[in-house]
Amino acid sequence: MTSQIKHFRKKQILNRRRSRRVSSEPDATAVLDMASEELARPELEQGESSLVIVRHKRFTVYPMTEEEAIEQMELLGHDCFVFCNPADDQMNVRYRRKDGHYGLIQPALG
Known about the structure:
Largest sheet: 3 strands, antiparallel
Mean pLDDT: 77
CATH class: Alpha Beta
Shape: globular
Strand order of the largest sheet: 1-2-3
Number of strands: 3
CATH architecture: 2-Layer Sandwich
Strand content: 15-25%
CATH superfamily: Sigma 54 modulation/S30EA ribosomal protein, C-terminal domain
Order of helices and strands: HHHEEE
Number of helices: 3
CATH topology: SHC Adaptor Protein
Structural class: alpha+beta
Number of domains: 1
Low-confidence stretches: none
Distance between the termini: 42 Å
Radius of gyration: 19 Å
Oligomer: single chain
Helix content: 40-55%
């Protein structure tokens, strides 16, 4: 069943990528929204960063193993996944590396 889920998920991702290539032009409302954001933003002073946080997200973090976190990340189609690791009772982040393997970020103790 796990292999079927992985196969289905991979198929969804490939289809989504193909559809993004076809519809790469932004629609008129998106262009207008971007233009209005540019006009609404005050001019930046020299040396200021133009990076702005545009979204905040809250979610419930469940305890799960590192392998379960990978499965959840794959099912959701995300590149990273935050979870509570019951082995050390800490928040961990599992992420997909550019080489296709997975990485784990753990807080330093002490």
